[in-house]
Specification:
- Keywords: Iron, Metal-binding.
- It comes from Vitis vinifera.
- The protein has 17 helices and 23 strands.
- The chain is α+β, with helices and mostly antiparallel strands and 606 residues long.
- Strands 15-16-23-20-1-19-18-17 form an eight-stranded mixed sheet. It has an eight-stranded mixed sheet with strand order 2-3-11-8-13-6-5-4. It has a four-stranded antiparallel sheet with strand order 7-12-9-10.
- A hairpin with a 2-residue loop joins strand 9 and strand 10.
- Helix 4 packs across helix 7 and helix 12 crosses helix 15.
- It starts with a strand and ends in a 6-residue tail after the last helix.
- Bound molecules: N-oxalylglycine and nickel (II) ion (NI).
Length: 606
């Protein structure tokens, strides 16, 4: 039985965070003592900038002509497609933003950063706010610090603006920000039209997804540094945005992007804008277009200013792959109403796996005993050792067994019995609860859209929380205590999930309630999987390889039949049941959140 705590929805309260730790102003530090660089900025040897080896790749970074794109020029669209697939970064020329708008913005910003600290601090970021002047978000004392100061403003929708953070000096700065941002908005919209086209959709599909976009500006100021080889201006990260549009100085190189395993500097083209694909497009495109890791380095002689405009999704937008971009190479969980399978005595071809499928991945059953076992009672009491173990389990396995979870054995037994009772019913009776693909609830065979091979299993999927998603018509009435039992079990699972999210927040260096707050209205769904016996188990798979589109999944399995296998070190490791324990796995959403939080530390939005 597979109990999924499904996708998390973020609310506006995701905008406030547990506070950032105070961090020195870098520009002041450098000003008062140019030769001194505190330990906390000095990177480990292996993180050092290595630029020289990849300079030759710099001139291969695609350059896209926006005016051609916007006229639907075929060649240019092809170029854009290639850029998104292979680089995730490109420079945009002929974008129609007047040179004086670009230069005016740069000029005003550098005047702002030249102001005395006391002046700039009038706009100081509060420790729990995302907007204002200050330093990147810092969550742990051990974290290496970025050699930069920033000014962050939310620009659109205008009702999100906090004008108290908009500098009054230099006088014309506000207006420059307004004009520039409005131009960037247009460039972003034109790019989204072209992106819609190359993703095989109507021109305005991506734009139409949004009632409104969120646009935020982050101005980065990188002071000079006496030992540029040992510090970073911005730590490696990917952007959580849909798109990021960056304006950089025309004559100082700092931005580097990861390509073919190397850090490639993005050499400025005068008046061009640098655009990169953010995590959202990576997800929408089901991984076809890439959100590339990048960082900024500093130098001895010249301070550098860059302007990153993030085009972000609003809460009303779903962030999941577009159906038509899901294929068997990149399977993702999407449900579809389909055939009913009756005859279990022979295996229809569609269930048979090719030799290749089955041999994919070596048998690593020797590793089974090494799957981490985590004591949830210890986690609840914030036992440091156990938290470390959790962190390691998430990093190295993404899976662990949870013991001491507090769910009474009797509840576990009852829910197993109830499920077994349901699946034993005659097919006619179970059919009364048939899967509705729109609802994603009911009894049947949910499976991936374009996966031609079928899973040797039937499922019952019920949405449990928020309770207005519950549709009782899908809830079996036989066995008689089914509803009651599922209700009790789900309440218990929710408590376990809360403990886990609390501990996961701690291991990510946030306050305990951070992830829970993100899951304002935590959604929870139950999927009961029934794997009939199979005469030729070597030729079928109960459930195809997949990762869960959830935050975390909590699985209760039979105590005496092994079936679940997880991918580890390039092989498949069977998860042998431990009596009364649960199996937990980290789903895609937490993985995205980890990325997001990593990024939050230096951008802080979304
Ligand atoms: C950012 C960023 C790079 C740069 O602000 O997210 O990646 O060149 N900046 O300043
Ligand atoms: Ni970035």
């Amino acid at each position: 039985m597979d109990i999924n705590i499904a996708e998390a929805v973020e609310g506006e309260d995701a905008l406030t965070y547990a506070g950032s730790l105070p961090v020195p102003n870098v520009q002041e530090m450098e000003r008062s003592n140019p030769m001194q660089v505190p330990e906390r900025y000095i990177r480990n040897q292996e993180d050092m900038p290595k630029t020289t080896d990849a300079i030759h790749l710099s001139c291969e970074i695609p350059v896209i002509d926006l005016s051609l794109l916007s006229n639907g020029h075929k060649e240019e669209l092809k170029k854009l497609e290639l850029a998104c697939e292979e680089w995730g970064f490109f420079q945009v020329v002929n974008h129609g933003v007047a040179e004086e708008v670009l230069q005016g913005m740069k000029y005003s910003a550098s005047e702002f950063f030249e102001l005395p600290l006391q002046e700039k601090n009038k706009y100081a970021m509060a420790s729990d706010d995302i907007q204002g002047y200050g330093q990147a978000f810092v969550v742990s004392e051990e974290q290496k610090l970025d050699w930069s100061d920033i000014l962050v403003l939310v620009i659109y929708p205008t009702r999100f603006r906090k004008l108290k953070f908009w500098p009054n000096a230099p006088k014309e700065f506000k207006e420059k920000i307004e004009v520039y941002s409005n131009e960037v908005k247009r460039v972003g919209e034109e790019l989204l039209c072209s992106l819609s086209l190359i993703m095989g959709m109507d021109k305005d599909t991506l734009l139409g997804l949004h009632k409104e976009f969120v646009q935020a500006l982050r101005v980065n100021y990188y002071p000079t540094c006496s030992i540029p080889d040992q510090v970073l201006g911005v730590s490696p990260h990917s952007d959580t945005s849909i798109l990021t549009i960056l304006m950089q100085d025309d004559d100082v190189t700092g931005l580097q992007i990861k390509h073919s395993g190397e850090w490639v500097p993005v050499k400025p083209i005068p008046n061009a804008l640098v655009v990169n694909i953010g995590d959202v497009i990576e997800i929408w495109s089901n991984g076809k277009y890439r959100s590339i890791e990048h960082r900024a380095v500093t130098n001895k002689n010249r301070a550098r200013i860059s302007f990153a405009s993030f085009i972000l999704p609003h809460d009303d937008v779903e962030i999941e792959p577009f159906d038509h971009l899901v294929d068997s190479q990149q399977p993702i969980k999407i449900y579809k109403k389909e055939m009913v399978r009756c005859n279990l005595s022979c295996i229809p071809d569609r269930f048979k796996r090719s030799e290749e499928d089955k041999s994919k991945g070596v048998d690593l059953s020797v590793l089974s005993p090494q799957i981490p076992v985590i004591d949830l009672a210890l986690l609840s009491s914030e036992n440091v050792e156990e938290l470390k173990k959790l962190e390691w389990a998430c990093k190295c396995w993404g899976f662990f067994m949870a013991t001491n979870h507090g769910i009474p054995e009797e509840v576990l037994q009852r829910v197993k019995d109830a499920a077994a009772g349901f699946f034993e019913l005659p097919f006619e009776e179970k059919k009364a609860y048939s899967l509705d693909s729109n609802e994603m609830q009911g009894y049947g065979q949910p499976f991936m859209v374009s996966e031609e091979k079928l899973d040797w299993s039937d499922s019952l999927i019920l949405r449990i929380y928020p309770s207005h998603f519950q549709k009782l018509k899908f809830w079996p009435t036989t066995p008689a205590d089914f509803r009651d039992t599922v209700e009790t079990y789900s309440t218990e699972v929710r408590k376990v999930a809360e403990t886990l999210l609390g501990s996961l927040s701690l291991t990510m260096g946030m306050t305990k309630d951070a992830l829970l707050r993100l899951h304002k209205d935590m959604a929870q769904a139950l999927r009961v999987n029934y794997y009939p016996t199979c005469r030729n188990p070597d030729q079928v798979i109960g459930i195809s390889p997949h990762s869960d589109a959830t935050s975390i999944s909590i699985l209760l399995q039979d105590d005496d039949v092994t079936g679940l296998e997880i991918q580890h070190d390039g092989g498949w490791v069977p998860v042998h049941p431990i009596l009364n324990s649960l199996v937990v796995n980290i789903g895609d959403v937490i993985e995205v959140n980890i990325k997001k939080f990593h990024h939050l530390k230096d951008f802080i939005y979304n």
